[in-house]
């Protein structure tokens, strides 16, 4: 026996040392993900989108593709001669900035004489360095002075502000996530030692996931953006801590039954690993369904997050058990479990009482909780899906937002970011006339052959490339507004009707339109597939059909209730203008996949106990022994996703809030009350058509007789 214990210790030591070596190699990559991230919306569009085709055509009309930065100067009392001299001096310095494409067009005065606007084309090849170019432009302007306000806006200004936001992922977001997990683990375990093991394992999971994501993104196998990077951070730490809580809770139970930690861990691993693997596998498969998305950004998020969960599963089922075996009973100090053969339910007094309450009032409980959740779904009428405008994108003021608002006050709001129309040379004049007649289009001009160094020449010949002409349509509304998107849709309908024009409409607003349309298509395709996949996994795990259908029904009800409650909060508490078009799909994938996690944790244990005790007794025993750990896991996951609020982006705050609220609803209401009460009320038939439904039915009939 001593020899077996010694071999077990050596194995645990070898596993820990091997993982520490892996962590030493992989660790540095967790801080380098921003190096391979890209945040250009156009790069994530479907290849067959009209805006993508327009972008490809635009490449032929310029020597270098550019992203415009719009530098806008405003003096409400009227631009002075001194202001004009300052703008001219700034313009000369802008031309010297590396990455700026020359020659620069002259400043554009507003009709009311209160503003000047300079369009500064930035080389698109700069990539993430566009942010650095914009920062140099902002340094040159020097900000507001003597009543003259200066802002750098436009697509380049927006991208620079986004890059600055996402730069917080490698530092503040990771730090906040670690602190949140640490505090909750200290509260849950009330041990100065035990928290180290799950936190160390979660950190190892993040390092392992980071190295794979970095290498794949660097090789251009997948695209990584700041949003996916932020979600990866909170998902790995949240889900990893969940899996750790489940394994540690089962290990603690087995330490009451076994003398040696190795024997206790072996039994605990056999009991907990199937549920953890099924849970992680469900999340991975659900995330990989995002590969069916027509948006490259969604297709990137799927494998990035799936890699994070896969790495977490591997670490939590190898590295963490080895750490716990080496820690032994002292890891639980000062509440060290003794080998006393105690009933696991004895340590869960409050949950045993909740289980008794469920047994006495099962039908009223599941009926009342279902009604409450159904009432919350009424808030869905307030949700409203839209593409968030630039001024609505951030939770705090930014230079690009301020600048866009100045532009909207003094110019046709689409100035500097026009819609582009590509058509044949023969139909260019007709297409321009049709486009000019579309409501919301302020002006239509062809792109001319020579560089623009003075005021536009209406008689200049248009530039012709491969028989095509590029028209630039200035929109009356801001390019990221709902009004501009409606104009683009109407513009496309109008120009597509021109015979033999083969017109293609692109530009910044068109990218938003195509992104929104693709997001709607993705929801209609991916959501049903995810539900079918989850149903199959649950059926295989529980060896039943009725139970999986009921569980999916409770998760869908919880999801709808969460979105209803969030809609009310977003509109009436946070004062957000709406939700981004990608929000419903992301919320569904994370809430349903993670919500099923807790179903799996609970019902796999209920099934295990039902085999020994009968279904109704198994439901109560499963609830009593898993209630505490599932609640703790839910709180951890909710808290980690809440950390997304560190990033001042509305879409991430909305997603973090939705996942946090949804997980808490799942944990406190659905998994603690609705599912156990429903399963208890149905009884053995819950396992239909499996053998357990018949065997338990006969047993409970005999007990009742």
TrEMBL record:
InterPro entries: MMPL_dom (IPR004869), Mycobact_MmpL (IPR050545), SSD (IPR000731). GO terms for cellular component: plasma membrane. Residues 231-326, 554-680 form the SSD domain. It is a multi-pass membrane protein. PROSITE patterns: SSD. The chain crosses the membrane at residues 171-189, 196-217, 229-251, 272-293, 305-326, 365-384, 525-542, 549-570, 582-602, 614-639, 645-665. The keyword Transmembrane applies. Its main location: membrane. Keywords: Cell membrane, Membrane, Transmembrane, Transmembrane helix. It comes from the Bacteria. It is found in: Cell membrane. PANTHER family: MEMBRANE PROTEIN MJ1562-RELATED, MEMBRANE PROTEIN YDGH-RELATED. Belongs to the resistance-nodulation-cell division (RND) (TC 2.A.6) family. MmpL subfamily. This is SSD domain-containing protein. The lineage of its organism: Bacteria, Bacillati, Actinomycetota, Actinomycetes, Micromonosporales.
């Amino acid at each position: 026996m001593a020899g077996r214990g010694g071999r077990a210790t050596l194995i645990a030591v070898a596993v820990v040392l091997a993982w520490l070596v892996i962590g030493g190699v992989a660790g540095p990559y967790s801080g380098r993900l921003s190096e391979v991230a890209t945040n250009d919306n156009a790069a994530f569009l479907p290849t067959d989108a009209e805006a993508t085709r327009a972008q490809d055509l635009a490449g032929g009309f310029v020597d270098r593709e550019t992203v415009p930065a719009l530098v806008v100067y405003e003096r409400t009392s009227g631009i002075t001669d001194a202001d004009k001299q300052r703008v001219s001096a700034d313009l000369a310095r802008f031309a010297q900035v590396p990455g700026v494409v020359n020659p620069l067009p002259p400043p554009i005065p507003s009709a009311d004489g209160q503003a000047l606007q300079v369009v500064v084309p930035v080389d698109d090849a700069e990539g993430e360095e566009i942010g650095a170019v914009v920062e140099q432009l902002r340094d040159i302007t020097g900000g507001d002075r003597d009543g003259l306000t200066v802002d750098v806006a436009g697509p380049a200004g927006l991208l620079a502000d986004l890059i600055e936001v996402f730069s917080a992922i490698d530092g503040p977001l990771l730090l906040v996530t670690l602190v949140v997990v640490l505090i909750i683990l200290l509260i849950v375990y009330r041990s100065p030692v035990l928290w180290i093991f799950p936190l160390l394992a979660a950190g190892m999971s993040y390092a392992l996931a980071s190295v794979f994501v970095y290498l794949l993104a660097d090789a251009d196998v997948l695209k990584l953006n700041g949003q996916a990077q932020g979600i990866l951070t909170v998902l790995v730490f949240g889900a990893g801590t969940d899996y750790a809580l489940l394994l540690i809770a089962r290990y603690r139970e087995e330490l009451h039954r076994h003398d040696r930690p190795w024997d206790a861990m072996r039994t605990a691993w056999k009991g907990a690993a199937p549920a953890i693997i099924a849970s992680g596998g469900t999340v991975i498969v659900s995330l990989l369904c995002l590969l069916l998305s027509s948006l490259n950004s969604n297709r990137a998020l799927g494998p990035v997050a799936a890699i994070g969960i896969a790495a977490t599963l591997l670490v939590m089922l190898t590295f963490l058990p080895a750490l716990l075996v080496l820690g032994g009973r002292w890891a639980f100090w000062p509440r060290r479990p003794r080998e006393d053969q105690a009933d696991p339910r004895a340590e869960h007094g409050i949950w045993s009482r909740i289980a008794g309450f469920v047994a006495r009032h099962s039908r009223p409980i599941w009926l009342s909780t279902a009604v409450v959740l159904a009432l919350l779904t009424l808030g869905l009428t307030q949700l409203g899906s839209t593409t968030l405008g630039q001024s609505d994108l951030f939770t705090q003021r930014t230079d690009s937002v301020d600048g866009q608002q100045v532009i909207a006050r003094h110019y046709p709001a689409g100035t500097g970011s026009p819609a582009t129309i590509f058509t044949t040379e023969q139909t260019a004049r007709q297409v321009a006339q049709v486009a000019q007649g579309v409501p919301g289009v302020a002006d239509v001009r062809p792109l001319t052959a020579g560089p623009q160094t003075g005021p536009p020449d209406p008689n200049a010949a248009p530039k012709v490339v491969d028989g095509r002409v590029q028209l630039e349509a200035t929109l009356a509304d801001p390019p990221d507004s709902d009004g501009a998107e409606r104009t683009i849709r109407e513009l496309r309908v109008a120009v597509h009707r021109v015979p033999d024009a083969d017109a293609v409409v692109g530009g910044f607003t068109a990218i938003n339109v195509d992104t929104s349309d693709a997001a709607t298509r993705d929801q209609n395709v991916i959501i049903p597939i995810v539900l079918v996949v989850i149903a199959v996994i649950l059926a295989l795990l529980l060896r039943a059909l009725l139970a999986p259908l009921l569980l999916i029904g409770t998760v869908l009800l919880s999801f709808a209730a969460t979105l209803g409650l969030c809609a009310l909060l977003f509109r009436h508490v946070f004062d957000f203008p709406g939700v981004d078009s990608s929000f419903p799909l992301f919320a569904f994938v994370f809430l349903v996949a993670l919500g099923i996690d807790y179903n799996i944790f609970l019902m796999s244990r209920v099934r295990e106990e039902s085999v020994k005790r009968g279904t109704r007794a198994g439901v109560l025993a499963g609830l009593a022994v898993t209630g505490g750990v599932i609640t703790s896991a839910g709180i951890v996951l909710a808290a980690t996703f809440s950390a997304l609020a560190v990033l001042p982006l509305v879409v991430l705050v909305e997603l973090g809030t939705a996942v946090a609220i949804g997980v808490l609803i799942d944990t406190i209401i659905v998994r603690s009350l609705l599912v156990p009460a429903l399963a208890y009320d149905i009884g053995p038939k819950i396992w239909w058509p499996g053998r357990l439904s018949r065997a338990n039915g006969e047993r409970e009939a005999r007990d009742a007789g």
